[in-house]
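Supplementary Methods. Inverse-folding protocol.

Structures were first reduced to a C-alpha coordinate string of length 311. This string, shown here, constituted the complete conditioning input.
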Protein backbone atom coordinates (compact mmCIF):
# COMPACT_ATOMS: atom_id res chain seq x y z
CA UNK A 1 0.00 0.00 0.00
CA UNK A 2 2.85 2.41 0.84
CA UNK A 3 4.38 1.76 -2.57
CA UNK A 4 1.19 2.69 -4.41
CA UNK A 5 0.67 5.79 -2.27
CA UNK A 6 4.22 6.88 -3.09
CA UNK A 7 3.66 6.09 -6.78
CA UNK A 8 0.45 8.16 -6.82
CA UNK A 9 2.27 11.09 -5.20
CA UNK A 10 5.09 10.90 -7.76
CA UNK A 11 2.63 10.78 -10.68
CA UNK A 12 0.59 13.66 -9.26
CA UNK A 13 3.78 15.70 -8.80
CA UNK A 14 4.76 14.98 -12.41
CA UNK A 15 1.37 16.17 -13.69
CA UNK A 16 1.55 19.29 -11.51
CA UNK A 17 5.05 20.08 -12.77
CA UNK A 18 3.99 19.58 -16.39
CA UNK A 19 1.09 21.98 -15.95
CA UNK A 20 2.95 24.71 -14.03
CA UNK A 21 6.63 24.68 -15.10
CA UNK A 22 7.24 26.62 -18.32
CA UNK A 23 10.84 25.65 -19.16
CA UNK A 24 10.55 22.60 -21.43
CA UNK A 25 14.22 21.61 -21.15
CA UNK A 26 13.58 19.95 -17.78
CA UNK A 27 10.98 17.72 -19.43
CA UNK A 28 13.26 16.89 -22.38
CA UNK A 29 16.03 15.84 -19.98
CA UNK A 30 13.64 14.23 -17.49
CA UNK A 31 12.11 12.06 -20.18
CA UNK A 32 15.53 10.62 -21.08
CA UNK A 33 16.30 9.91 -17.43
CA UNK A 34 12.96 8.13 -16.98
CA UNK A 35 13.53 6.00 -20.08
CA UNK A 36 16.73 4.70 -18.51
CA UNK A 37 14.93 4.08 -15.20
CA UNK A 38 12.56 1.77 -17.09
CA UNK A 39 15.33 0.13 -19.12
CA UNK A 40 17.49 -0.46 -16.04
CA UNK A 41 14.57 -1.90 -14.08
CA UNK A 42 13.65 -4.18 -16.99
CA UNK A 43 17.27 -5.30 -17.47
CA UNK A 44 17.59 -6.17 -13.79
CA UNK A 45 14.71 -8.69 -13.95
CA UNK A 46 16.84 -11.00 -16.10
CA UNK A 47 20.36 -9.68 -15.55
CA UNK A 48 20.19 -8.90 -11.83
CA UNK A 49 17.75 -11.44 -10.41
CA UNK A 50 18.65 -14.39 -12.68
CA UNK A 51 22.26 -13.44 -13.41
CA UNK A 52 21.95 -13.57 -17.23
CA UNK A 53 23.87 -10.58 -18.59
CA UNK A 54 21.85 -9.18 -21.48
CA UNK A 55 23.36 -6.81 -24.06
CA UNK A 56 20.25 -6.98 -26.24
CA UNK A 57 18.46 -3.99 -24.72
CA UNK A 58 18.56 -1.96 -27.99
CA UNK A 59 16.78 -4.79 -29.85
CA UNK A 60 13.74 -4.68 -27.53
CA UNK A 61 13.85 -0.90 -27.17
CA UNK A 62 14.14 -0.45 -30.93
CA UNK A 63 11.37 -2.90 -31.74
CA UNK A 64 9.08 -1.03 -29.36
CA UNK A 65 9.97 2.29 -30.98
CA UNK A 66 9.45 1.01 -34.51
CA UNK A 67 6.20 -0.73 -33.58
CA UNK A 68 4.82 2.58 -32.32
CA UNK A 69 6.11 4.51 -35.35
CA UNK A 70 4.73 2.05 -37.90
CA UNK A 71 1.32 1.89 -36.19
CA UNK A 72 1.14 5.67 -36.12
CA UNK A 73 2.11 5.94 -39.79
CA UNK A 74 -0.25 3.21 -40.95
CA UNK A 75 -3.29 3.75 -38.73
CA UNK A 76 -2.70 6.99 -36.78
CA UNK A 77 -3.08 4.83 -33.68
CA UNK A 78 -3.32 6.67 -30.32
CA UNK A 79 -0.16 6.78 -28.26
CA UNK A 80 -1.49 4.63 -25.42
CA UNK A 81 -2.31 1.83 -27.86
CA UNK A 82 1.11 2.26 -29.46
CA UNK A 83 2.71 1.69 -26.05
CA UNK A 84 0.65 -1.43 -25.40
CA UNK A 85 1.40 -2.84 -28.85
CA UNK A 86 5.11 -2.08 -28.41
CA UNK A 87 5.13 -3.97 -25.11
CA UNK A 88 3.40 -6.98 -26.70
CA UNK A 89 5.76 -7.11 -29.70
CA UNK A 90 8.90 -6.74 -27.60
CA UNK A 91 7.59 -9.30 -25.12
CA UNK A 92 7.09 -11.78 -27.95
CA UNK A 93 10.61 -11.03 -29.15
CA UNK A 94 11.86 -11.68 -25.62
CA UNK A 95 10.04 -15.00 -25.53
CA UNK A 96 11.40 -16.04 -28.94
CA UNK A 97 14.92 -14.92 -28.05
CA UNK A 98 14.67 -16.79 -24.75
CA UNK A 99 13.64 -20.02 -26.44
CA UNK A 100 16.67 -19.77 -28.73
CA UNK A 101 19.32 -18.46 -26.34
CA UNK A 102 18.53 -19.19 -22.70
CA UNK A 103 20.08 -22.63 -22.88
CA UNK A 104 23.37 -20.78 -23.39
CA UNK A 105 25.22 -19.41 -20.39
CA UNK A 106 27.82 -16.80 -19.57
CA UNK A 107 29.65 -15.14 -22.43
CA UNK A 108 27.82 -17.24 -25.03
CA UNK A 109 24.44 -15.85 -23.94
CA UNK A 110 25.84 -12.29 -23.94
CA UNK A 111 27.20 -12.68 -27.48
CA UNK A 112 23.85 -14.07 -28.66
CA UNK A 113 22.03 -10.99 -27.33
CA UNK A 114 24.45 -8.69 -29.18
CA UNK A 115 23.73 -10.65 -32.35
CA UNK A 116 20.01 -10.04 -31.77
CA UNK A 117 20.63 -6.28 -31.90
CA UNK A 118 22.48 -6.60 -35.21
CA UNK A 119 19.71 -8.74 -36.69
CA UNK A 120 16.94 -6.34 -35.67
CA UNK A 121 18.84 -3.30 -36.96
CA UNK A 122 19.48 -5.03 -40.30
CA UNK A 123 15.78 -5.91 -40.66
CA UNK A 124 14.65 -2.33 -40.19
CA UNK A 125 17.40 -0.92 -42.40
CA UNK A 126 15.90 -2.98 -45.22
CA UNK A 127 12.21 -2.24 -44.47
CA UNK A 128 11.24 0.64 -46.75
CA UNK A 129 7.80 1.21 -45.21
CA UNK A 130 9.53 2.02 -41.90
CA UNK A 131 11.90 4.44 -43.62
CA UNK A 132 14.80 2.09 -44.23
CA UNK A 133 18.29 3.37 -43.46
CA UNK A 134 17.30 7.03 -43.93
CA UNK A 135 14.62 6.92 -41.26
CA UNK A 136 11.07 8.15 -40.89
CA UNK A 137 9.85 11.66 -40.12
CA UNK A 138 6.80 11.90 -37.85
CA UNK A 139 4.42 14.77 -37.21
CA UNK A 140 3.22 14.97 -33.62
CA UNK A 141 -0.54 15.27 -33.09
CA UNK A 142 -1.86 17.95 -30.73
CA UNK A 143 -1.23 17.21 -27.01
CA UNK A 144 -4.08 16.06 -24.82
CA UNK A 145 -5.42 18.40 -22.12
CA UNK A 146 -4.27 19.58 -19.61
CA UNK A 147 -0.83 19.56 -21.26
CA UNK A 148 0.21 22.54 -23.36
CA UNK A 149 3.01 20.68 -25.16
CA UNK A 150 3.58 17.14 -26.39
CA UNK A 151 6.92 16.85 -24.57
CA UNK A 152 5.26 17.50 -21.22
CA UNK A 153 2.66 14.84 -21.98
CA UNK A 154 5.43 12.37 -22.91
CA UNK A 155 7.21 13.17 -19.66
CA UNK A 156 4.14 12.24 -17.62
CA UNK A 157 3.67 9.07 -19.66
CA UNK A 158 7.32 8.19 -19.03
CA UNK A 159 6.73 8.61 -15.29
CA UNK A 160 3.73 6.26 -15.50
CA UNK A 161 5.69 3.67 -17.51
CA UNK A 162 8.59 3.81 -15.04
CA UNK A 163 6.18 3.31 -12.12
CA UNK A 164 4.63 0.27 -13.83
CA UNK A 165 8.11 -1.17 -14.51
CA UNK A 166 9.18 -0.72 -10.89
CA UNK A 167 5.90 -2.20 -9.66
CA UNK A 168 6.39 -5.29 -11.84
CA UNK A 169 10.00 -5.69 -10.66
CA UNK A 170 8.87 -5.30 -7.05
CA UNK A 171 6.18 -7.94 -7.45
CA UNK A 172 8.61 -10.37 -9.09
CA UNK A 173 11.25 -9.80 -6.41
CA UNK A 174 8.84 -10.45 -3.55
CA UNK A 175 7.12 -13.48 -5.13
CA UNK A 176 8.19 -17.09 -5.53
CA UNK A 177 9.30 -16.17 -9.06
CA UNK A 178 11.92 -13.83 -7.64
CA UNK A 179 13.14 -16.48 -5.23
CA UNK A 180 13.41 -18.93 -8.12
CA UNK A 181 15.36 -16.44 -10.26
CA UNK A 182 17.77 -15.75 -7.40
CA UNK A 183 18.27 -19.50 -6.99
CA UNK A 184 19.15 -19.69 -10.69
CA UNK A 185 21.65 -16.87 -10.26
CA UNK A 186 23.34 -18.57 -7.28
CA UNK A 187 23.48 -22.04 -8.85
CA UNK A 188 21.30 -23.14 -11.74
CA UNK A 189 22.20 -26.81 -11.26
CA UNK A 190 21.27 -26.72 -7.59
CA UNK A 191 18.02 -24.93 -8.42
CA UNK A 192 17.07 -27.62 -10.92
CA UNK A 193 17.84 -30.35 -8.40
CA UNK A 194 15.50 -28.76 -5.86
CA UNK A 195 12.62 -28.60 -8.33
CA UNK A 196 12.84 -24.98 -9.52
CA UNK A 197 11.40 -24.74 -13.09
CA UNK A 198 14.51 -22.95 -14.32
CA UNK A 199 13.71 -22.74 -18.04
CA UNK A 200 10.16 -21.51 -17.51
CA UNK A 201 11.31 -18.86 -15.05
CA UNK A 202 14.05 -17.66 -17.41
CA UNK A 203 11.57 -17.47 -20.29
CA UNK A 204 9.18 -15.52 -18.08
CA UNK A 205 11.93 -13.10 -17.03
CA UNK A 206 13.11 -12.64 -20.62
CA UNK A 207 9.55 -11.98 -21.84
CA UNK A 208 8.69 -9.48 -19.10
CA UNK A 209 12.05 -7.75 -19.41
CA UNK A 210 11.65 -7.43 -23.18
CA UNK A 211 8.08 -6.13 -22.88
CA UNK A 212 9.08 -3.39 -20.44
CA UNK A 213 12.00 -2.36 -22.65
CA UNK A 214 9.61 -2.14 -25.58
CA UNK A 215 7.26 0.17 -23.69
CA UNK A 216 10.26 2.37 -22.84
CA UNK A 217 10.97 2.75 -26.55
CA UNK A 218 7.39 3.34 -27.67
CA UNK A 219 7.35 7.09 -26.98
CA UNK A 220 10.81 7.77 -28.45
CA UNK A 221 9.64 8.37 -32.08
CA UNK A 222 7.26 11.10 -30.92
CA UNK A 223 9.87 12.49 -28.53
CA UNK A 224 12.30 13.01 -31.43
CA UNK A 225 9.69 13.37 -34.23
CA UNK A 226 12.03 11.07 -36.13
CA UNK A 227 13.25 7.48 -36.06
CA UNK A 228 16.11 5.71 -37.86
CA UNK A 229 17.89 2.38 -37.22
CA UNK A 230 21.40 3.53 -36.31
CA UNK A 231 20.38 5.63 -33.29
CA UNK A 232 17.37 3.50 -32.30
CA UNK A 233 19.42 0.30 -32.01
CA UNK A 234 22.41 2.08 -30.46
CA UNK A 235 24.40 -0.03 -28.00
CA UNK A 236 24.52 2.95 -25.61
CA UNK A 237 21.08 1.79 -24.45
CA UNK A 238 22.62 -1.54 -23.48
CA UNK A 239 25.47 0.16 -21.62
CA UNK A 240 23.14 2.45 -19.68
CA UNK A 241 20.69 -0.33 -18.84
CA UNK A 242 23.51 -2.54 -17.56
CA UNK A 243 25.48 0.15 -15.74
CA UNK A 244 22.56 1.58 -13.76
CA UNK A 245 21.78 -1.59 -11.75
CA UNK A 246 25.51 -2.07 -11.14
CA UNK A 247 25.71 1.43 -9.70
CA UNK A 248 22.48 1.31 -7.71
CA UNK A 249 22.53 -2.38 -6.74
CA UNK A 250 21.01 -5.45 -8.36
CA UNK A 251 19.62 -7.14 -5.24
CA UNK A 252 16.66 -4.77 -4.74
CA UNK A 253 14.09 -3.34 -7.12
CA UNK A 254 15.07 0.22 -6.12
CA UNK A 255 18.72 -0.35 -7.05
CA UNK A 256 18.25 0.18 -10.83
CA UNK A 257 16.08 3.23 -10.14
CA UNK A 258 18.77 4.84 -7.97
CA UNK A 259 21.52 3.94 -10.41
CA UNK A 260 19.61 5.26 -13.43
CA UNK A 261 18.77 8.52 -11.66
CA UNK A 262 22.42 9.05 -10.70
CA UNK A 263 23.94 8.03 -14.03
CA UNK A 264 21.43 9.59 -16.43
CA UNK A 265 21.16 12.84 -14.49
CA UNK A 266 24.94 13.17 -14.38
CA UNK A 267 25.09 12.47 -18.12
CA UNK A 268 22.52 15.19 -18.80
CA UNK A 269 24.53 17.67 -16.73
CA UNK A 270 27.76 16.74 -18.49
CA UNK A 271 26.09 17.02 -21.91
CA UNK A 272 24.93 20.56 -21.15
CA UNK A 273 28.04 21.84 -19.35
CA UNK A 274 30.87 20.04 -21.18
CA UNK A 275 29.99 17.76 -24.11
CA UNK A 276 27.78 14.78 -24.88
CA UNK A 277 30.94 12.96 -26.01
CA UNK A 278 31.92 12.73 -22.32
CA UNK A 279 28.94 10.52 -21.47
CA UNK A 280 30.80 7.27 -22.14
CA UNK A 281 33.63 8.46 -19.88
CA UNK A 282 31.11 9.17 -17.11
CA UNK A 283 29.74 5.63 -17.39
CA UNK A 284 33.23 4.13 -17.36
CA UNK A 285 34.42 6.08 -14.33
CA UNK A 286 31.30 5.30 -12.29
CA UNK A 287 31.41 1.61 -13.21
CA UNK A 288 35.07 1.26 -12.25
CA UNK A 289 34.45 3.06 -8.96
CA UNK A 290 31.46 0.96 -7.96
CA UNK A 291 32.92 -2.36 -9.13
CA UNK A 292 36.08 -1.73 -7.08
CA UNK A 293 34.78 0.23 -4.08
CA UNK A 294 31.13 -0.85 -3.83
CA UNK A 295 30.36 -4.06 -5.73
CA UNK A 296 26.86 -4.14 -4.20
CA UNK A 297 26.10 -0.62 -5.43
CA UNK A 298 24.64 2.35 -3.60
CA UNK A 299 22.18 0.19 -1.68
CA UNK A 300 25.05 -2.03 -0.54
CA UNK A 301 26.87 1.04 0.80
CA UNK A 302 23.75 2.10 2.73
CA UNK A 303 23.39 -1.38 4.23
CA UNK A 304 27.03 -1.40 5.36
CA UNK A 305 26.66 2.07 6.83
CA UNK A 306 23.45 1.08 8.65
CA UNK A 307 25.06 -2.06 10.11
CA UNK A 308 28.11 -0.09 11.21
CA UNK A 309 26.10 2.72 12.81
CA UNK A 310 23.78 0.30 14.65
CA UNK A 311 26.65 -1.41 16.48
Amino acid sequence: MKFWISAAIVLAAAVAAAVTVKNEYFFFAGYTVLVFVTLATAWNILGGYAGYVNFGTPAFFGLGAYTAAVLFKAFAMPLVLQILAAGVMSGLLGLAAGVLTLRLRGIFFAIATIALVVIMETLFINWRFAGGATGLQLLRPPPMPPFESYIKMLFVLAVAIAIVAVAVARWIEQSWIGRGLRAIRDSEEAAECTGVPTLRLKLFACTVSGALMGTAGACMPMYLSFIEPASTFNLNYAIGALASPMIGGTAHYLGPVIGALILSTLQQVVSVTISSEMNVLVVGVLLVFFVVAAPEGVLGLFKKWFRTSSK
